Amino acid sequence: MKLRTIGLLFLFLTPVMAQVEGDGVSTSKVDAAANAYQQMELLTEVLFQIKENYVEERTYEELIHGALAGLLSSLDPHSSFMEADEYEDLIDDTSGKYGGVGIHIGLRDGVLTVIAPIEDTPGFRAGLQSGDKIVAIDGESTMSMSLRDAVNKMRGEKGAKIVLGILGEGDAEPKPVEIIRDEINVLSVKGVRFLQGGIGYIRLVQFSEPTADMLAKEIARLKGEGMKALVLDLRGNPGGLLEQSVRVASLFFEPGTLVVTTRGRGEAGKVVEYRAEGEAYDARMPLVVLVNEGSASASEIVAGVIQDHRRGILIGQTTFGKGSVQSVIGSRTDEASAIRLTTAYYYTPAERKIHQVGVKPDIVVELSRDEWLHVQMKRAHQEVPDAFSAEELAEFADAVDHPLQRAVDLLQALLILDPQGSK
């Protein structure tokens, strides 16, 4: 086996050597290529050693897939090797329907962390909040668990129980939180209503396939009913599809306006600009965008472009800071598998890097963990009155949404200066 590998190595290096002699390419390229093949030889040798000597039988498929999973997960928390079932899960995520707990998670400082709970889900009803650390899943520590493995463990059939070890803000010790899984159906546009004085309100829960079309429809409806200003609530929105963030931003800018730039590795990395497109836009209507630490990814793209172009005012708390681009690349040799690979970072129109920094609002209005939980519960009761008992409502009936209140005050002042709003 070893002789065969060396033979292949020589075969692959031969054209490289010829190129060096003919074109005067530096020998460092040859050295780099040789080193790559040496490392592949090492990988092959280890593979054979495991196959022949490991205490339990393993197929070559299991070994190769395990190696690929480890390779991708070693790069960053968002890159992964996806087998058929995992790829199906990814499709379910973007379509807005799957079975599980109902929370979006990520790694922050190497710790499994709740980015945002999804409203009207078991995780939301259990009181999980942005920033909560998940230290155990069904008694198993998450210390060395990959993000993909954590997602897989939390997914499951409706009615199945799961116990999460949660370390909340200010907690000295983690506490067990028992959750019964359910089917998660996520509507991306919620809470559409008038607040007061011609001020409309729309909340985006995530950026899935129908988000931009649904938002455009609701904006048109509210404007037809007399809306002169808008509060767009992106709090707790963990993001989703890049395409949808660009289409959402396109509703507020003239076609051609730069929305976001993605950049690959180094100075020679691929640069892609995404610009506003479409004819259904309103570039004048007074706009306030609400954000918090649960606003991530696509939410941060929309918040960043609105802030950079001074199209509206951001109110709330600094966003999560998930500003990397994952590309899904299908296998040419195994159609059932794919890789999700971080290929670029997001940059706002003003060249600000979002990743691990986030977007800081123009007006900071803090809400404590408990205040935000009560605001969410009160809001959920207003939208779905039958979801809570009178006793439950009493706990958060007096909750005050200070960022939303500040947004209304600001828009009322702007409408005094321009009573016609966008008309």
Radius of gyration: 25 Å
How many E-type strands? 19
Largest sheet: 6 strands, mixed
Low-confidence parts: 1-23
CATH superfamily of the largest domain: 2-enoyl-CoA Hydratase, Chain A, domain 1
Strand order of the largest sheet: 10-11-12-15-16-19
Q: Proportion of β residues?
A: 15-25%
**Averaged pLDDT:** 85
Fraction of residues in helices?
25-40%
Terminal CA distance reads 76 Å
Molecular shape: globular
The CATH class assignment of the largest domain is: Alpha Beta
CATH topology of the largest domain: 2-enoyl-CoA Hydratase, Chain A, domain 1
Number of helices: 12
How many domain regions? 3
Strand-pairing-aware structural class = alpha+beta
Corresponding CATH architecture of the largest domain: Alpha-Beta Complex
Describe the structure in your own words.
A hairpin with a 7-residue loop joins β17 (324-330) and β18 (338-347). The chain is of the alpha+beta class. The radius of gyration is 25 Å and the shape is globular. α1 (2-23) runs antiparallel to α2 and α8 runs parallel beside α9 (298-308). The chain is built from twelve helices and 19 strands. The chain folds into three domains: 2-58, no CATH class; 97-185, PDZ domain (Pdz3 Domain); 189-417, 2-enoyl-CoA Hydratase, Chain A, domain 1, CATH 3.90.226.10. The strands form five sheets. A six-stranded mixed beta sheet has the order 10-11-12-15-16-19, with helices on both faces. Strands 1, 13, 14, 17 and 18 form a five-stranded antiparallel beta sheet that branches.
